[in-house]
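USER: Write out one fold?

ASSISTANT:
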Amino acid sequence: MCELFAMSSRHPADVNLSLEEFSRHGGLAGPHKDGWGIAYYAGRDVRLMKEIEPASDSACVRFIREHPFESPLVVSHIRKATQGVLALANCQPFARELGGSMHVFAHNGDLAGRRLKARLALGAFRPLGETDSEYAFCALLERLRRLWRGARRAPPLKARLAAVAAFARAIRALGPANFLYADGDALFAHGHRRNHPDGMRPPGLHLLSRRCAAGDARLDAGGLSIRATTPGEQSVVLFASVPLTAEAGWKPLGEGELVAVRGGRIVARAG
């Protein structure tokens, strides 16, 4: 299965992510990975980089490692293809504009394609690729479109959380449904099930919440380095398919749990 990672922080941070090291934590050893992508929020826009090549062979990944980008919100995905051919359109994260904001989505799992299309209708948004993940994202945006249409700012968090939670309930019945969704204001993380050595079961996603004093706002983990670029206390929330360090702070999300994060702090839960 694929590997997910996301970061939300109070202040922008340099995120140096070694995808090759990071992927080994989730069992994707070797050069057989089927693409990768990272989305860095930058103001109202998103800097999105994706490739179908393995991260180990990528000059773009080497550039990111040597020149990390500053961002308060990052979403990343390493693909192990289960649906769709090897093509850039099938690599995640996916990004679309809605209501004057950029929305980003990454999914880890395998949804029943025919049942997905029968249960979740599309509207204004259409997939570019062939994956169940992108179809699900387009269906989520259709559910959110009424909230965002004509909005001058992000709709109330409670309404967005309810819409994302209803979407999560719908796709959980179709297969493993771990996903990360960001709308520029908040990050939503949903944990479900993933492949473990003893079979498909929860947890499908893990969470680490940290607060760092001024001058000490740095985190180093396997394949990951985060360094604050603004003076002052830093708050950071990380999500990953599997814990990236041995520290006790990593907590598994419950099966069907949805967590909303804003500015490096957990602001709501559902499920």
Observations:
- The first strand starts at residue 3 and ends at 17.
- The mean pLDDT is 87.
- Helices lie at 19-25, 59-66, 113-119, 132-148, 157-172.
